[in-house]
Structures are given as structure tokens and as C-alpha cells.
Amino acid sequence: MKIKLSFIALFFITYSFSLGQNLAGPWKGTLNLPNGKLDIIFKISAKDNDLKGIMDIPAQGVKGLPIHEIKYHSPFLHIKLPNLGIEYVGNVIDDDHIEGTFKQGGQSFTMNLEKNLDEETPMSKPQEPKPPFPYVNKAIEFYNKDAGILLSGTFSRPTDLKRYPTVILISGSGPSDRDQNILGHKPFLVLADHLTRNGIAVLRFDERGVGSSQGDFKSATTLDFKNDVEAAISFLKLRTDVDPTKIGLIGHSEGGVIAQMIAAENKDIAFSILMASPALLGKDILLHQKQQMEIISGVPDEAVARNQLIFEEAYDMIINNEQPLDERLREYFKHQYHNNISNQQLNAIVTGMSNPWFVGFVKLNPAIYLQSIKTPLYALNGSKDVQVLADENLKMINDELTKNGNPNFKVEKLEGLNHLFQECESGLPAEYGVLNQTLSPVFLEKVSDWIEDITKMKH
């Protein structure tokens, strides 16, 4: 699920093409905001004329945010975060100084950067596996002929040359690379390593328009991402080291919905694992998420109830296809907040709620797919997940699979875990990057044990 937070807070970002080896290094700048100063650190790496980077916000305890897009056309450096309407444009003066402007939601702040070699490189999280690996780990590419794009990823398997049970990892919403890099964590790398060490092959890939994969992420919908996974399935069926009768899906959050879609219609899928997967109508997922986050954050009850009414009506406008949607939403929120809302806030809300992915998600009803899934399925949620609430969604999965007569499914709530399956305190997204744990060992063992049991049963 996308993380919706306030100005310059946590956010998802990815990569793009650029030039300029001299830009590599840590760059530090200070935003002079109305409520105080905020240091921003861009850490840029360059390889083969490709710029990538991460962003630190020390005052918020956040490190290792992957940057969405970095481009350099001499003398100008562009850093873009389109999901939040954020852009940094700087004039590169020399190898150590950039003069520029930080923009968001119609507001601009002068922010000059200096290369600061004293800034330490973010430490890897303790669970992040390092080579050499005791298994085969190969960079791969596969083609989505329907979209006309080449997708890049990593395929891992044990060293013995035979046909293995294989899973495809499907990430949640927001641009994601093959490791599901988020706030310094690489959960898909950790999960793939654990599964491969336990005799299960794994395919994970950069989403379209992310990392080394072709395509346009910003214009893509859930159905487009589903199509990419189907291309991965076709690729696996041609491999001599994959058992084509034991191909499964592991989907996290929105990726779990994609797994449901495919399992409902594709007979080649042997099993599915849903990690914190929505099962309710998209509109209800978003309302529950907003309510739970506000309650835990201490928002007054009256404000929580008021926000529920306001956003429920806005989501209904989307479901009812009111057009032009962006204009209707803009006028609606101006009226609801009696014009006491800044252009910055208004632009962020309208831009986020009118893009194709969001419109599709509000209307999405996973129960339709659950009704048709007859193959083995394992659904897990953390008890402290505030983005996809465990009880409501697991109940829906249980009810729908019971009604359709699925003979082999399991739903389980794991105590003390958040949306990313980390052991946590509050479960709020602000904790994700601060925690050292990437994935709970309990979660990892449950997943590998279940796959082992299922694939042994299937001959």
C-alpha cells in the first residue's frame, strides 16, 4: 500500500537514467521551512552513466530512501519525486557545490548542496545477505510481448541441476525494484535468500520503469503489473531448472491482489501466498487504513470520524466515475475544508487520487477473485498492520475460500508484526526504516515450511 504522510516525510521512490560521474557522493543541503530547518542528504552513485541514489532525513531518523529519478543535463541536476509532486533542480557549480531549489506542491525553497564526504554510507540491515551465496544467483531478463517491454530480475536456485518448486515475488504499490528496497530494507532479497537456502527457487524482478526494467511505471495500473507477472510465469515454464507443475506466487500487499487475480484464472499456478493482502473493496481498505493510523497517532475522535465521512464521499466520486475527476475532487475538498487548505495540500490530494492506479485501486474488489481460487493458498497478516488490517481481511479470505470449497487453505495472524512483517511497537510506517529487522524469522520459517509441505503433497 502507498504510504501517505505529511510534507517531506517517508515516501517511495525509484531510479532513472542520467550522466555525470562527478556527481557521485553524499550531498548535504538544508531546507529553511516555516517551522524550522531540515537537513536533506542525497547520496548519489554513478555506474556506466547511470545515476542512482538514496535520501536521508537525519532529523526524522530516516535513512536509505531510494530516489525516484535522477537526471543530469549539464549544468543542471534534476531529482524528481512525482508521487509527492517533489522536485529538486540544481545548477552544478563544481564537483563540490550545487545551487538549487527544492519544490513541492507549488512552494519553492532555496536549497544549496555541498558534497560532504563525512556523511557515512548507510549500514546494511543485519539480515541482508552478502555474497558469496551457497546457491545459484543469476541476472535474467524476460519479455512481456503484450506491453512490448523487457523486464529484468534475478533468478536463484539451489546448486544441484534439477527441477525446483519456484515462486515469483510480487511487490506492493509504489515503484519497487527486485529487492523491494524500502527505507534501507531489502525484504525480497532476504526472503529470496531464505527460500533458496531451503530448496525453493525464486524469481524477483524490477517493476516496469524501475531499475533495469523497461516501461512506464507512472501510467501503469494493477492490471498492467498482473500482465508483467504473467510474462514471468511464461518465462519460468521454459526453464529446465523449474518444475512447471510447482510454480507459485508470493504477493505482498497489492502484490497479493495480483496473486489472487492470476491464481483465479491461471491453472499453471500451483499455490499462492498472500502477505498482508487486501481482501476488502479498495475503498474500504483505504478508509480502514486512514482511520487506524489516525487513531494510533492520537488524532481526536471527532476529527477521525469527520475524515472518514469526507474521504468516503470522495472515493464514491471515483467509483461513480464523476468527470472531470481532478476538477471535481479539487472543488469538493475546497468546500469540505472551507478553503482552509493550502494549494500544496490540495494539489497533493488531487494528484494522488486522480491517477490511474489509485482510481483502479479504489474500485478493486479482491473477493471476486477469491471466489474462484481452488488451489492451495496461505494468507498471513501481522497483528499490528495498520495498512491492511489483519482481522477484517483475513476473515474475508477465510469466508470466500470456505464458500467456494477450496480444500487446502490457511489464514494466520502473526502477533506483533507490522505491514512489512517486522517485529514492531506501534505498527506505524514511521517505524519501518528505524527497525533493524527486515523480516521476522517466524514469518520466514512459516512461509518456507508451508511451501515445502504443499510441494511435497503435489506429485
Question: Brief overview, please?
Answer:
Pfam families: Hydrolase_4 (PF12146). The chain is α+β, with helices and mostly antiparallel strands and 459 residues long.
What does this structure look like?
The chain has 459 residues and is an alpha+beta fold. It folds into 3 domains: 21-115, Quinohemoprotein amine dehydrogenase alpha subunit, domain 2 (Lipocalin, Beta Barrel), CATH 2.40.128.120; 136-280 and 366-457, Alpha/Beta hydrolase fold, catalytic domain (Rossmann fold); 282-362, no CATH class. It has helices at residues 187-197, 222-237, 254-265, 282-296, 301-319, 325-336, 343-354, 356-363, 367-370, 390-403, 441-457, and strands at residues 25-33, 36-47, 50-57, 62-66, 69-73, 76-81, 86-94, 97-104, 107-110, 113-115, 136-144, 149-157, 164-170, 201-205, 242-252, 269-275, 377-382, 409-414. Strands 1, 2, 3, 4, 5, 6, 7, 8, 9 and 10 form a 10-stranded antiparallel β-sheet that branches. The protein has an 8-stranded mixed β-sheet with strand order 11-12-14-13-15-16-17-18, with helices on both faces. The two termini are 36 Å apart. GO terms for molecular function: carboxylic ester hydrolase activity; serine-type endopeptidase activity. Keywords: Hydrolase. InterPro entries: AB_hydrolase_Est10 (IPR053145), AB_hydrolase_fold (IPR029058), Hydrolase_4 (IPR022742), Pept_S9_AS (IPR002471). This is Serine aminopeptidase S33 domain-containing protein. Residues 191-386 form the Serine aminopeptidase S33 domain.
